[in-house]
Write a structure and sequence with these properties.
Layout lengths: L2 E4 L3 H17 L7 H24 L3 H28 L6 H13 L4 H14 L31 H9 L2 H16 L1 E2 L2 E2 L5 H23 L4 H27 L14 E6 H7 L3 E2 L4 H6 L6 H6 L8 H15 L5 E2 L2 H17 L10
Parallel strand pairs: 1-4, 5-6
Antiparallel strand pairs: 2-3
Helix pairs in contact: 1-13, 2-3, 3-4, 3-9, 4-8, 6-9, 6-14, 8-9
Length: about 350
Amino acid sequence: MKVRFARATEFQKELTARVKEYFEANGLPERGLVRMYLKTLVILGWFAASYVALVFFSTAWWAGLLLAVSCGLAVAGIGMAIQHDGCHGGYSNRRWMNYAAGFCMDGVGASSYYWRWKHNVFHHTYTNVTGADDDLETGGLGRLSPLQRRRRIHRVQHLYYWFFYAFLVAKWHLLDDFLCLIKRRVGPHHVPRPRGRDLFVFVGGKLLFATVVFVIPSFFHPFWLVLLFYGAAVAVTGFVLSLVFQLAHCMPEAEFPEAIGDPAQIKEEWMVHQLNTTVDFAPRNWLLTWYVGGLNYQIEHHLFPKVCHVHYPAISKVVREVCEKFEVPYRAHRTFFSAVRSHFRLLRDLGKNDFDQAPTQA
């Protein structure tokens, strides 16, 4: 499925120019910053310390469980704050460093090759477009868009759907990547199978992950305990990743535009479409911003995905100013918990009602 957008207007031209002017005026590189590299060392060190303590030093089950949770949180940090920038080309000006940062995803069990297709290409291009953005597809377990069919089970999805967030990463590890490889598809989109280096990384990443997560720990712990701690770690990672991304798009304030016509078209230009379908949250929470790799500034990320996330707080001021000038809505929640409540309302309302979109102000 391909969707076309309206031609760029003065809004898109001025916003792009203003952000470029910000970097030039302050003499800042868009990517390749020392503090990003230092952050990488901190997060990878966190994961390594948690893993070594879990596998080689934990003796009590409760200590192992706590360390598995720590591993899960560290892996989520790797995904949001390292590989995410790398796969987008926003980690460094050097291509090999972006590729290496993106490989972190393969190292923790999921394919960076299919992530680039699913996330970079399809999600970022067709954000919240039902039938084109695969992030909205749930196999009928949930209803995330008013354009999707409502089923009886969805009446209580605001109570049960949170449970499935914990299975996101395990599903990537054990099912999704292999189905994509076999079917040559990501959702409704055809995707070529990986070849050459990409195939080597796909296979090598899966083998490395299996060795680190299952084989090595099995020499020191019963296999059932290895599986238990794996389950705990991936449940934490999956829940954190799911929640952060859901708070950016599956919100009452966000729009779910319908692509109409043949070829399918969206009435707005691409940048306005991104602003209509994306919500920021907790912009003043510096610790959350650090941990989630700036993904609470999801608007800025969607508008400028190749800019390193450490710049998002600063360029958000530019984005707000241009939006105010052109009277384009800029949607943001002040706190993390207000965003969680808003997501809960969306799940509840989509489960109980067939309604026309009427976005509310955050």
